[in-house]
Amino acid sequence: MPQEQSVTRERQRTGLREPRRYKVTIYNDDFTTMEFVVKVLVEVFFKSQQEAETLMLAVHHSDKAVVGIYSYDVALSKTQKATRMAREAGFPLRLTCEPE
Which CATH number fits domain 34-99: 3.30.70.60, 3.30.1390.10, 3.30.70.260, 3.20.10.10? Predict the structure, then answer.
């Protein structure tokens, strides 16, 4: 009876990596109302009322807060939608989208 040989196969590198994630940051200003910031957080970022109020207070006290981490397309889309809402309402609310 011939002995069985074990075959070792090396893993091939596929070059696939997890997509880069982007954080969306909202900044405090002296003109945008707290109510409007909460509205944006609920409507655009799908935060609960309680979570939106907590984030709004964090922005108010710390001058900025990360409101979410998303894929590039989602982060950019949410940033643009929130900025558009703010401009239409006459507020200078600023949001940024940057790599995590």
Answer: 3.30.1390.10
